[in-house]
Amino acid sequence: MARVLMKGNEAIGEGAVRAGCRYFFGYPITPQSELPHYLAKRLPEVGGVYLQSESETAAINMVYGAAGAGARVMTSSSGPGISLMQEGISYLAGAELPCVIVNMIRGGPGLGNIAPAQSDYFQATRGGGHGDYRVIVLAPASVQEIIDLMRLAFDLADRYRNPVMVAGDGILGQMMEPVELGEEEDVQIPPRPWAATGRMGGEKKLINSLYIVPEELEQHNLKLARKYALIASKEQRWEEYRLDGAKLVLVAFGTVARICKAVVDRCREEGLAVGLIRPITLWPYPQKAFEPLMGKVDSFLVVEMSLGQMVEDVRLAVNGRHPVHFYGRCGGMLPVAADVVQEVKKLYGGEGN
After folding, report:
1. Which end of the chain is more exposed for a tag (fewer CB within 10 A), N or C?
2. CA 304 to CA 28: how far, in whole Å?
3. pTM attached to this predicted model
4. How confident is the model at residue 353 (pLDDT cuts 50, 70, 90)?
């Protein structure tokens, strides 16, 4: 098994190729520009197509067309570009088209800066665009996990005929780590009887998200709601770290979870019973991870690179049964392990947050 040093953005591209993706449409934006740069070279090597669109709006509509024709397809961007894609993402969800969308999150709002952030959490997990819809959201925390989750992203997109978003950040995209790459395999893409590939003597295929008759649109929305409920019941994923005997549990995802593991280790060395829950799926949110802890822990501390977004989902999962505290940095600033340790000690001392 080959072990190579890869940048996070490059690993996303390699993971996509190994997952059977053969089409990429996108537009460069920092801090994810190495991803399209990598695929511009890599996709032609496997008979795929890379096309730099004239805008993010154009890119997401190209994704719609390729997905409607049955291709495994993806795009990528960062916060401002993902905002421009929202109409197209809503169309993809409404038409039940599988695709993968990568957001390497940067500081905002507005143009913000190119430093890492997690402030697009609401945008990703609440649909982001118009109408009642959801996208599945995966949050890797290492370059190796990027490789692994890209295959899962495409598989989930196909399984549920739904867009899947991979939510990283500027650090995860730029960092380099050793990854293990197995042999490339021939990926068997599931049959797509719904795809608009030409009638060819068969039944008519129509890819559409337009329902003029209100009763028909309501039934379509209820059908989507049943699918989302199924996803929520089957696809919750998370990592547990040193939860044995924990009285205070940190909750963090992505890059911040890496910092929080160091916090947990330091606290344990000082005799503080601290653990960590790391959500891997941001939607569906892993509420099941919290149930075994109810009545056993004292409180939770949510750590984010934002002013507090995922903390709302933690409060929903805990449902008032334990205090949920928050510590965050924003604008591209990283939480520092020493500062989080001090927050933990405040909570242990009863000062609260």
Report:
1. N
2. 26
3. 0.96
4. very low
